[in-house]
Amino acid sequence: MALIVQKYGGTSVGSVERIQHVADKVLDYRRQGHDVVVVVSAMSGETDRLLGLARDINARPEGRELDVLLSTGEQVTIALLAMALEGRGCPARSYTGAQVHILTDSAHNKARIRDIDGARVRRDLADGRVVVVAGFQGVDEHGNITTLGRGGSDTTAVALAAALKADECQIYTDVDGVYTTDPRVAANARRLERITFEEMLEMASLGSKVLQIRAVEFAGKYNVPLRVLSSFQEGPGTLITFEEDGMEQALISGIAFNQNEAQVTILGVPDQPGVAWRILGPISDANIEVDMIVQNVGADGTTDFTFTVHRNDYDKALAILQGLPEKLHARQISGDPKIVKISLVGVGMRSHAGIASKMFEALAGEGINIRMISTSEIKISVVVDEKYLELGVRALHDAFELESPQQGR
Amino acid sequence: MALIVQKYGGTSVGSVERIQHVADKVLDYRRQGHDVVVVVSAMSGETDRLLGLARDINARPEGRELDVLLSTGEQVTIALLAMALEGRGCPARSYTGAQVHILTDSAHNKARIRDIDGARVRRDLADGRVVVVAGFQGVDEHGNITTLGRGGSDTTAVALAAALKADECQIYTDVDGVYTTDPRVAANARRLERITFEEMLEMASLGSKVLQIRAVEFAGKYNVPLRVLSSFQEGPGTLITFEEDGMEQALISGIAFNQNEAQVTILGVPDQPGVAWRILGPISDANIEVDMIVQNVGADGTTDFTFTVHRNDYDKALAILQGLPEKLHARQISGDPKIVKISLVGVGMRSHAGIASKMFEALAGEGINIRMISTSEIKISVVVDEKYLELGVRALHDAFELESPQQGR
Question: Considering the entire predicted model, what is its pTM?
């Protein structure tokens, strides 16, 4: 007998039939004796329909009113799911974000959760009800409806699980778990039984878009065991938890990659204090997000500086640098929009030497030239020509034997 | 400079274009220096769409969850209208029923308003905003979403107008006012400049379905001047107020009729205490609403008893009476589903004799046989064969010269 918070996304509740299916799944857990709180998104397509209406009315709708509008999407789903459960003889009760006091800041369209009052939910659970909560939405201290931004239902589920001290937070999606890499790139990619929060954060931010990063951060912060499962097929999914003592930890959990980056390079700038700021200040002022930053130690009093940005921002970033007074006294400003980043992620690498060299060896074996390298505690990222993406991912997947659960121990 | 509460129904906000049109109308009033609070319904068709979803999920959805679902309809409209106003540079803010504390009882799907806290609305008006409120919905003392039942947006508007002590409550609809009778029946029917609350109640309950009865009762109770106007054409509409001292009052305001009634007659029941209760008790226990009731003084210790019910309930009512033990000792139980009720309504008749006889004379002149007569302070109703409906209404409209504003003074 456990308390489980489940979250079903838009595709999982995309039609009357699928909502009935979700009700069946919830009922299964109830029959096993568990208490269940369900968080749902808007039915797929609904948010876009509402956004379309808004755009037809006002090209730049105010954030507050957009939230009033969009929050109806989840409200429809909670009512329908509660009805489906009641129709199965299972007492259920639906709540909007405001009704269970999901208190957020006032940043409309991208609000952050501050606090949740779990009292009402706990009372319903004690009364034997399934509680259905609208994801993605909350209320600010003035009673205004807020939304957490797209995909925010994951965060709602995790925050509720934390507030209720749930035993597990299950995120149902259209994939059956987290994979060692994208199966479309490496056919022998394997579903992970478990992965740590840190690894998941590195995987997610690097492009394996299974879960919202904020939800994973939240889960890690409040130590909520998180499980990613498919709502369309049976299976245990992937459990995301903290590293356990004595747990035999895989060396490498997976290979993430990002195809949306572009590289900007400044060669031969004077190697003086403040150079990084002079370069990146104007970039950040233009609201361009920078991902990797690599600065090489240079010769003869100058240094080389390279960073990556989203491809959409490449031209803008280049223009900004070339428009700077004296062009930073750089010898050359150049770049390449056709690069990819490939990253090896695994908490196991912390305690194992030689991972980096094995990685570079595998890439070299395929004749892949590495342009940039950046490392963190549990991640090694390289930037290579975009044409090497598939080849590089597969070479690394094979080299670290990720197709086998016994890899690298 | 006045405070005006306006209510726009589903047809008036049925599309993006119509919402833009409503925004233009609101802005007109703002430009004239008025403070405006707008109450809106769900876009036409939306409530039916949501009901369809609910029915596909659960043939008998719980009232609480139905209210969570249906209340999204108005919530979409308030956001869109606020966006349309903001798009015109007019500061606006939308509120759900819960957000402005439209406190109701807990009778889901047919809740009644208990209290409204106007403080938040007043603050916004003082800040120069137009306030847009979702009609038809409220919140009970436990924070559950409630709805007032179909058409309840009129009641929301009137209740808000009362709470805010508004100067006028304007109900925009698809007709341009209240008419002396249905123009489809009498082509010379005339729009009334004004009508009293009492007359309006008699007109509405008798079949001139312009306004929700509850809204009129509410407006009368709190003395809120109510105006019915068209949202599609310009014009002053019809003002519904209390009878004013010294106001030259028309003798007759209008002729209402009801084609949905059926007559049930019990002949020759023993004329004893309790006979009415023995007849109507079982009818009311079966949730059948009774409209007119007429009991004649009978001869030889028996009496005759006739009442009318909705035609849909006719067979059921007849079966109940015939199924009663000893059939009430009645000589005969019979009925006729093909009757209509025609009513003459006017506060002026209170102080004028001879209205009834003039009415009966006009009907007799057309050879129309009267089956039942029932009178109140400001109304005389007759039941006739349904084939006489048009003939009877036109004869009365002509006899009382209702086509002319100077009638009967």
Answer: 0.80
Query: Quick check: is A7 in a domain?
Result: yes
B119 touching chain A per CB within 8 A = no
CA B172 → CA A231, B22, B26, distances in Å?
47, 10, 12
Structure tokens at A159: 């925050």
- Consecutive H or E run containing B311: none
The answer to whether residue B54 sits within a structural domain is yes
**Bridging pattern class, strands A302-310 and A339-345:** unpaired
Helix ranges restricted to H, A222-274: none
**Domain of B10, in residue numbers:** 3-174
Q: What is the CATH number of the domain that holds B34?
A: 3.40.1160.10
The answer to whether residues B254 and B201 touch, using CB atoms and an 8 Å cutoff, is no
Task: Please judge whether B65 and A76 are an interchain contact, meaning their C-beta atoms are less than 8 angstroms apart.
Answer: no
From the number of C-beta atoms within 10 Å of its C-beta (0-12, 13-18, 19+), residue A7 rates as: buried
A-chain CB neighbours of B92 within 8 Å are 65
| Strand-by-strand arrangement of the B254-258 sheet | B254-258, B339-345, B379-385, B372-376
Q: Which residues of A touch B98 (CB under 8 A)?
A: 98
For chain B, what's the residue count?
A: 409
User: For A194-222, what is the mean pLDDT?
Assistant: 81
- Total structural domains within chain B: 1
Contact between A188 and A153 under an 8 Å Cβ cutoff? The reply is: no
Q: What is the mean pLDDT of each run of 10 residues along chain B (409 residues)?
A: 94 96 96 97 95 95 96 98 97 97 94 92 96 97 90 90 96 90 90 90 71 84 92 91 67 90 90 81 87 78 88 94 80 92 88 83 91 87 93 95 70
Output phi, psi for A57, to 5 deg. Answer: -85, -40
Strand partners, B230: B173
Reported ipTM: 0.77
DSSP labels, B52-106: HHHHHH-SS--HHHHHHHHHHHHHHHHHHHHHHHHHTT--EEEE-TTTTTEEE-S
Please, is A267 exposed, middle or buried when counting C-beta atoms within 10 Å of its C-beta (0-12, 13-18, 19+)? middle
Say if B86 is an interface residue toward chain A (CB within 8 Å). Answer: yes
Q: Between chains, do B57 and A145 touch, taking CB under 8 Å as contact? A: no
Residue B373 inside a domain? The answer is no
- Does any CB of chain A come closer than 8 Å to the CB of residue B290? no
- Residue B286 maps to a domain: no
For B228-241, b where at least 16 C-beta lie within 10 A, e where not — what string?
bbebeeeeebbbbb
Among A86-90, A245-249, A336-340, B334-338, the least confident range = A245-249
Residue A101's contacts (CB-CB under 8 Å, 6 or more residues apart) are A115, A116, A117, A120, A139
Is A68 in contact with B96 (Cβ distance < 8 A)?
A: yes
**Straight-line distance from the first to the last Cα atom of chain A, in angstroms, rounded to the nearest whole number:** 34
Q: Which helix (H) or strand (E) holds A183?
A: none
